[in-house]
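## retry 2 of 3
previous attempt timed out at serialization; input unchanged, resubmitting
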Amino acid sequence: MKIQQLIVGGMGVCCYIASCPATKKAAIIDPGGDIPKIIAAVRKNGLAVQSIIATHSHPDHVCGVAELQAAIATPFLMHQDEATFLANPEISHYFAMFGMGEAPTCDRTVVDGETIAVGDEAFTVIHTPGHTPGGMCLLSGDDLLTGDTLFVQGVGRTDFPGGSFDKLMDSIQRRLFALPDHTKVWPGHGYGGSQSTIGAEKRGNPFL
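## retry succeeded, writing output
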């Protein structure tokens, strides 16, 4: 899997274009704004987008979904627990507080352990609740897209609706830290850097 990282939106979201070198099929993960920039990168590399995926439903990560789907007709995926969470009126109010429109409609839900095809490659879904109830990470080979579960030398906030510090710590310690130390960590924001490894976070993350 080829992973391209783009920093988008007013909150510096790490959006990813994941593509299969053999087929040129691609998935866009967390399109949090700057949609023309994302589309330009897709077209520059001659990619055909199969899906848009959200690691979680916070507005800074999904605010560009509708605009992206208007330009590239493709399904929008998230974890089934996140889709349920997103339907809660309290969460709609959360979107409104950020000046966002209505939350995007999920076209397909996935569950822990399910695979999402990207051409001849695939991501495996790892359910990592804590930042949000249906937050998930995406693993392909040695590449792990962690959303706002795990940052470089940081972890996701848990003071938003649906957050749980205990669940976040369990997700990181039990699910992510069970992966090989050389696994590359691609975070949802670049607060401490744009890339790390599981081993580096085990050894040096001050929150863990």
